[in-house]
């Protein structure tokens, strides 16, 4: 078996696990796809294949566990999906330098938010104080906009929004996060497919690994240890991304 296939399957596995448990699996797969010789636009499109498949497997696992309430899912999906459509159109016209700056600002905001009391929310059961008003709808729309515009770390912001604002407990927040990622990834993959910017062979290989990673990620998310380790995964990934972006700028 060629080493490239082994690397692609391994990257897909890690992508599926990280996206299911926390987020930022694309921080692993996107640079790898570019390193393997794909143009950035094709790498961006190809990356949606393992993301989509991983989110599908994770969502099925959460559904089988009886965690997802479809009435709440519809409320969460509506503003995020609409926002992602607007974000995708906006991405066509936004200069690349603006996008890089937005990513850097968003990473800093996510990092600061993690240490503003969110850690305590990760460890609590908050469903009795569930919130869904104009503020929460606006925040979910903004996160959806980001998912369509940039994608990178969109799962992080969505998870934080569902926990800190909608007030879902971690396990349920992860379940609904994966549903949203599934829907928005499907939209994005359709757009990239129409533009012929998807390497289906490489994307399919990565998707094989993503299936395994998402399966074990969903199992881990249902474990009580997830309350501690999800927060640690988020901190580690965001710190590494800030370092990486800092090296690019300076």
Automatic annotation (TrEMBL):
Enumerate the transmembrane spans.
Answer: 6-39, 51-70, 76-94, 101-118, 138-163, 175-194, 200-217, 229-247
Where found in the cell? Cell membrane; Membrane
One GO cellular component, as annotated: plasma membrane
Q: Which Pfam families match?
A: TauE
Q: Which UniProt keywords apply?
A: Cell membrane, Membrane, Transmembrane, Transmembrane helix
Membrane topology (UniProt): Multi-pass membrane protein
Q: Which InterPro entries match?
A: TM_pro_TauE-like, TSUP/Inactive_protease-like
Q: Which family does it belong to?
A: Belongs to the 4-toluene sulfonate uptake permease (TSUP) (TC 2.A.102) family.
Protein name according to UniProt: Probable membrane transporter protein
């Amino acid at each position: 078996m060629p080493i490239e296939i082994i690397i692609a399957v391994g990257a897909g596995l890690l992508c599926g696990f990280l996206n299911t448990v926390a987020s930022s699996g694309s921080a692993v797969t996107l640079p790898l796809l570019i390193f393997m010789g794909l143009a950035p636009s094709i790498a961006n499109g190809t990356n949606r294949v393992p993301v989509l498949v991983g989110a599908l497997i994770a969502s099925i696992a959460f559904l089988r566990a009886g965690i997802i309430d479809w009435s709440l899912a519809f409320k969460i999906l509506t503003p995020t999906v609409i926002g992602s459509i607007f974000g995708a159109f906006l991405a066509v016209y936004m200069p690349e330098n603006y996008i890089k700056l937005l990513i850097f600002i968003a990473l800093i905001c996510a990092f600061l938010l993690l240490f503003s009391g969110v850690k305590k929310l990760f460890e609590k059961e908050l469903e009795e104080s569930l919130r869904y008003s104009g503020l929460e709808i606006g925040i979910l729309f903004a996160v959806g906009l980001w998912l369509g515009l940039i994608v990178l770390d969109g799962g992080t912001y969505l998870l934080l929004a569902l926990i800190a604002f909608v007030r879902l407990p971690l396990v349920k927040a992860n379940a609904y996060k994966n549903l949203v990622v599934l829907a928005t990834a499907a939209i994005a993959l359709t757009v990239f497919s129409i533009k012929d910017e998807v390497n289906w062979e490489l994307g399919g290989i990565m998707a094989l690994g993503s299936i395994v990673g998402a399966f074990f990620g969903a199992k881990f998310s249902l474990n009580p240890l997830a309350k501690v380790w999800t927060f640690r995964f988020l901190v580690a990934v965001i710190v590494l991304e800030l370092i990486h972006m800092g090296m690019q700028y300076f």
